[in-house]
Specification:
There is one protein chain. By secondary structure, this protein is α/β, with parallel strands linked by helices. It has helices spanning about 15-30, 45-65, 70-85, 90-95, 100-105, 215-225, and strands at about 125-130, 130-135, 145-155, 165, 190, 200-205, 210, 230, 235-240, 245-250, 270, 275, 285, 290. The radius of gyration is 20 Å and the shape is globular.
Length: about 300
């Protein structure tokens, strides 16, 4: 993940694509990123035949329509191998396919609008009570920001015991745990709301970033002439006992990459408009969340 300029990896260390890919792959392999439920976790044989068959026929149709050559076919195979070698399958799938799965899931869901999880969530982060300050370096760069709100049920009942799992990039566009720059756990935490479901989180405003450009996903994106940028955003998993966990992201008004998100995850309903608090350059945004009854178990 980089900001305005792509930063080359050191020749003595794994590239950013490899570092991010390895961590995202391990998380996906452990099933830790499957938080979007509900579901049985099983897929029957007929569904496999139907869905996989349709996907393969779509690829075959593209080959026929565009008269794909053997040179292009071999290039495609090399690209698939490179995605596997770097561990970028979670990145590629989450960037280019997850938003469609999320749209399907959203048809059956109530409560606040959500969006994709993405590949950069990590389990086991520090537990904090509201009001909370996310772990950060003593000289953490960026604009100080407060995110505050309340978690309620669909009938308006405040949800005591609700938690807000939050993570985002730093001011340079790096996620802790997926790049060597930020320390482990930087700008990540699970915040426990008060007995009225309210939360107040002190952090730094994140930066826009590109997906890793030194790996096959970024190289394909650039070769196709597509924008590799993600607007600045904050990731959230909002949970409460007896309710479906909400997977969401919050974006910022005026961001130049809104409407051109490489992951197609931004939505107008998820845009914040932070305002100055009057304390230096600090800003504040308020956002409430409504959870529907149910469980992801």
């Amino acid at each position: 993940m980089t900001t305005t300029e792509h930063q080359s990896a050191s020749p003595t260390s794994p590239s950013d694509a490899v570092t991010a890919g390895a961590h995202a792959t391990e998380s996906a392999r452990s099933g830790l990123s499957n938080l979007r439920g509900p579901g049985s976790g099983e897929v029957d044989q007929q569904r496999i035949a139907t869905v996989v068959g349709a996907a393969l026929e779509g690829i075959r149709a593209a080959i026929r329509e565009h008269e794909v050559t053997y040179e292009e076919f071999d290039a495609f195979k090399r690209w698939l191998i490179a995605v596997s070698d770097t561990g970028e399958w979670p990145l590629f799938l989450d960037v280019y396919l997850e938003h469609e799965v999320e749209k399907v899931a959203a048809k059956r869901q109530q409560g606040s609008v959500g969006t994709i999880l993405g590949p950069f969530w990590l389990d086991g982060q520090v537990q904090l009570d509201t009001p909370a300050t996310l772990p950060m370096r003593d000289d953490e760069p960026g604009t100080p920001m407060i995110l505050a709100g309340q978690v309620t049920a669909t009938d308006g009942t405040p949800l005591a015991g609700a938690t807000v799992d939050i993570w985002h990039t730093d001011d340079e566009g790096w996620y802790s745990g997926f790049a060597s720059k930020p320390p482990a756990g930087n700008l990540r935490g699970v915040v426990r709301c008060d007995d009225q479901g309210r939360f107040e989180i002190h952090t730094r405003k994140p930066a826009p970033y590109t997906i890793p450009l030194d790996g096959p996903t970024g190289q394909l994106t650039q070769a196709a002439g597509w924008s590799p940028w993600r607007p600045a955003h904050i990731h959230l998993l909002v949970a409460a006992p007896g309710h479906r966990t909400l997977t969401s992201q919050l974006f910022f008004t005026g961001d130049p990459y809104l409407g051109n998100d490489v992951a197609s995850a931004d939505k107008p309903e998820l845009t914040l408009d932070p305002q100055p608090t009057g304390r230096g350059d600090e800003i504040r945004a308020d956002r409430d969340f409504v959870l529907e009854p149910g469980s992801d178990d």
